Amino acid sequence: MADKTQEIKRLLQERLAELEKERKALEEALKNLGGKARAGARRGRRGPGRPPGSGKKRRRRKGGTRGEQAVKIVKANPGISAGDIAKQLKIQPNYVYRVMSELVADKEVKKKGRGYYPA
Fold first, then answer.
1. Residue 105's domain is classified under what CATH number?
2. Packed helices 82-89 and 66-76: angle between N→C axes, nearest 10 degrees
3. What digits encode the pLDDT tens for the residues 80-114?
4. For 78, which DSSP code?
5. Residue 13 maps to a domain
6. How many domains does the chain have?
7. Among 47-51, 59-63, 86-90, which is the least confidently predicted range?
8. Is the residue at 27 inside a domain?
9. Domain limits at 26?
10. CA dist 38 to 13, 30, 31, 45, 48, Å?
11. How far apart are CA 66 and CA 100, in angstroms?
């Protein structure tokens, strides 16, 4: 039994050596054709995600970005709350909180209590 196991191991190792030689020869041929050899590369299948150029083009809003719109509202209404800004922009308050935190970090507006003021 041990002899058969040793024989199988030897045959597998020989076959792996043959395959390694063939892989190297194929990589060299690909390199000569101008391609790039990659270990474990999948052919004919793309990885997860969208292929380049398949996404929708982003369009800019007429009134500017949400941040720009929020700054205009704050300048027009000092002390306004995030909920009131959300109502005027007709968007969800949780999104306004995210936009406003960026504006505060960029020092475009100040926050005092629950209200926002121009910087």
1. 1.10.10.10
2. 120
3. 999 999 999 999 999 999 999 999 999 999 999 99
4. T
5. yes
6. 2
7. 59-63
8. yes
9. 1-38
10. 23, 10, 10, 14, 18
11. 9
